[in-house]
Amino acid sequence: MPQQTTSSLKTYFDEIEETNGDDEYKAWIKKIFDLKVELAEFVSTRRPGEGDGKYVGFLKGSFNFSFRFSFDDGGPDAIIRFPKPGHTATAYRDEKVANEVQVMEYLRQNTKIPIPRVHSWGLIAESPHQLGPFIIMDYVEGVLLSTILKQPDQEDVILNPDVDNNIMDKIYRQIAHYILQLSQLAFPRIGAISKDRASDTWHVTGRPLTYNMNELATVAGYPNSQFPIAPFDRASDYLRSVANEHLTHLWTQRNLADNPEIAKERFIARHRFAQLIQQHCIEDSGPFILFCDDMRPSNMLVDPKTLNITAILDLEFTNAMPAEFTYDPPWWLLLSGPEIWLERCHMDEFLALYEPRLNQFLRVLEEVEQETAVECKGLPLSTRMRDSWKTGRFWFDYAARKSFDVDIIYWTALHDGGTGIELLDDKTRAEMDMFTQTKMEQLKAYKEECTARFSSER
To answer: Could you tell me which CATH number the domain at 35-140 has?
Structure first.
């Protein structure tokens, strides 16, 4: 079987599912703009002070939409933030917001990470006109860190190679402090955390709702019934669940393979990923460390004059997770993830850009470890990160969190020679031809449905 170039393994969203989500969001956004005055009154009643609210503007991210209001009592501006229906899976909106509020409270209590102060929050049923679950919190001044660090005039958000190293040292030092604090926050299970108000203690009480789950639910046609419904007690159990997630995605997204060869490449990659769990799973029985899927410069505010980070935002996909995720080097050191380069067959270019920044970050992290004298059980975090990079566990863990990129990561960074077919068991090999035929039938039906749906728009 001729092996595909990795550029042909780039994945695309299900255009029908994506359009359905966009349509849902467009209808919602029109409704919410008509309710600005009412929302100003609502926010005024849910914050300290007695001032009337005045609309200032709006803020929009990938998953959330916020209105900003000022108040005539002199208090700080506040925002009310809603998950965007259609871009956040509708069925998960309450769960997403409840998880994030719990994490924000926990981090404010247990770390020095700059987390916005929450004044009020509620679920869909408690929101005006059932607009959605909401968080009312202080507005924090600042510019997105990614805006300051990225290459100018580039479509992709990629680190400007000309950024002064002293600037990067200052940024890395702050983030190293945050990551080091997070690495100390351990739980006995994998999942979402919440506070027991009676005992004033924190526990893992829900399934881990992840960035990947939301993406699959909104743009892949993934069946919600196939996601996990409870916490996990072992890292290997969680990773097997993730491997099943990748395989379910493989079978259910209709436009995941343009031809039989790509279908086979994806089939091999995802089954091989499952086989690699035993090799890369560490600290199977825990403890499990609080980890945010989406903690990166695009979700950090910074004072542009001092370069001090003023807030860490968008913590909705934060869970107690396998410790090895925390022990991996940051994937965002070039701002965008490595898949941007892998899709273009530019692994060498990625490594040439990433490894100098990795060495710089680890040097700063080592300095912070020495300065803070944080008690660590076993090896320092910087040493663990070096080991993750050296052994390739970084790539396995990154693939675990990326159903849309697992194939290209496998073939570029995890595959170890041969076609891969010979490494599958007899039963799995026997399924491949049937799977390939199914994908081609799905693709034909998908294209016909797209033609019927979009022909008048093109």
So the answer is: 3.30.200.20
